[in-house]
Design goal:
Largest sheet: 5 strands, mixed
Helix content: 10-25%
Number of strands: 5
Number of helices: 2
Distance between the termini: 13 Å
Structural class: alpha+beta
Number of domains: 1
Radius of gyration: 14 Å
């Protein structure tokens, strides 16, 4: 049985909720802001039904306050991931200011562990 593609699903949900902010799965070389990137950073399939994924959300903006507000809005979306959509458990591991070392743009980061399953159709 296939598992839920957490990275793709979360990216789509963030894109829908945060429009017109661009939401990607990788940061482009020339980071324009505002920008949100969702990245699966680890985890493992627990069994054939449950996947326990680590995801990280990066949020860039022009100012520290704007980056925080964007990240806070993204966290609201993640915190509301629905059981009916395949999310059995959502746990925030961290939430912090994380200035981008390359672009020097303000960036906030949130890290989660989510337990997912493929919901019945």
């Amino acid at each position: 049985m296939p598992t839920l593609n957490v990275q793709a699903d979360v990216r789509k949900r963030l894109e829908d909720a945060l429009s017109p902010v661009e939401v990607r799965v990788r940061a482009p070389a020339d980071c324009s802001v505002p920008l949100v990137v969702v990245y699966r950073e680890g985890g493992a399939r627990e069994n054939t039904l449950v996947d326990r994924a680590g995801i990280r959300i990066y949020c860039w903006a022009k100012t520290e306050q704007e980056a925080f507000e964007l990240a806070d809005a993204a966290c609201d979306v993640i915190d509301a991931l629905p059981f009916s959509g395949g999310y059995a458990d959502v746990f925030q591991e961290s939430f912090y200011s994380d200035p981008d070392p390359d672009s020097r743009l303000p960036r906030w980061t949130a890290s989660y562990t989510v337990a997912t399953y493929v919901p019945p159709k």
